[in-house]
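> call design_seq(struct)
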């Protein structure tokens, strides 16, 4: 009880003023929680404000087409979050008549919602005492109690959830959950935690045993895969290009990209234009130049994309149907958005 009371007291003195803290509307809480998964508050805040302005209700989000949602999400990454958000908004409208489910067991059935998000919504909006466990909570609990179980192991996930559940204040679960998350984000930080002014310092195992830098423990990461991307940026005389939607379940599903030739290593111009894929794609005479001499390395969670953009100038091309002046209306990966920004800057 001392742990819970101390955290809540700290939170009431130090909590961040954030727009989703001023509401108990589950739609807004849901938006904020999905956006802040794997995203810092500073980055997610502008997206939250843009989304709630454009889609003020779940009905507005459900009515939008997926391409519009993905375009607004552009730059936040992990695009499956946006697709699941859109899918579940339609489910809430069609199956629940726009009424957000009000219990943990119902909320977790929505696509894209796991234990953490369901717990956050259920506790904050409906006062259900179900504990949240995110990266901040893992860090606070592992340090305070000196727990060395890896947080990304099945045993660790169960252990920390049970511990958090045993500590929650049943009378104000939403406040407790927000308190422990904010405490981890602002005070018990990954690097340089504020131990000297910590209200829990007199009973923190990690501080006592000098384990702050060792905790929490994570099992070894999955090996990062290297991929080599060559984007072919078509420019015709009548100012058109090719953009196509990525299909399937891989990265960037539903986003648009230039024609892509993936290789097993970085290649030069001669190797590119003599490749079967290039010859099949561009049988007519073309002029090709490399836009970026230095490869762009775009890092995703389990893969690094070593990328070159090639400008392919061609008189006319039947497959080039996208006008260059409309290109910014398409949802594209941030890697391509950054390229377009540089291309536009270079052209001006």
């Amino acid at each position: 009880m001392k742990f819970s009371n101390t955290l809540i007291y700290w939170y009431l003195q130090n909590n961040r003023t954030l727009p989703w803290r001023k509401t108990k509307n589950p739609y807004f809480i849901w938006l904020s929680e999905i956006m802040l998964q794997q995203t810092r508050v500073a980055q997610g805040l502008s997206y939250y404000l843009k989304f709630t302005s454009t889609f003020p209700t779940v009905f507005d989000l459900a009515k939008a087409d997926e391409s519009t949602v993905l375009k607004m999400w552009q730059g936040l990454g992990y695009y499956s979050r946006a697709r699941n958000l859109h899918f579940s908004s339609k489910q809430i409208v069609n199956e629940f008549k726009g009424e957000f489910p009000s219990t943990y067991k119902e909320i977790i059935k929505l696509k894209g919602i796991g234990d953490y998000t369901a717990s956050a919504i259920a506790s904050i909006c409906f006062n259900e005492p179900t504990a949240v466990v995110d990266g901040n909570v893992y860090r606070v609990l592992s340090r305070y109690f000196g727990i060395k179980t890896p947080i990304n192991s099945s045993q660790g996930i169960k252990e920390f959830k049970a511990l958090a559940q045993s500590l929650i204040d049943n009378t104000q679960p939403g406040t407790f959950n927000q308190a422990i998350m904010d405490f981890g984000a602002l005070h018990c930080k990954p690097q340089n935690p504020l131990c000297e002014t910590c209200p829990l310092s007199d009973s923190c195992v990690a501080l006592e045993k000098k384990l702050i830098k060792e905790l929490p423990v994570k099992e070894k990461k999955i090996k990062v895969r290297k991929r080599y991307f060559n984007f072919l940026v078509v420019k015709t005389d009548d100012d058109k290009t090719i953009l196509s939607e990525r299909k399937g379940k891989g990265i960037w599903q539903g986003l648009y990209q230039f024609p892509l030739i993936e290789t097993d290593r970085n290649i030069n111009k001669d190797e590119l234009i003599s490749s079967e894929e290039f010859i099949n794609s561009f049988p007519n005479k073309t002029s090709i130049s490399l836009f970026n001499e230095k490869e762009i390395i775009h890092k995703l969670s389990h893969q690094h994309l070593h990328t070159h953009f090639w400008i392919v100038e061609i008189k006319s091309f039947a497959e080039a149907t996208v006008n260059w002046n409309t290109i910014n209306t398409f949802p594209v990966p941030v890697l391509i958005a950054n390229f377009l920004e540089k291309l536009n800057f270079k052209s001006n």
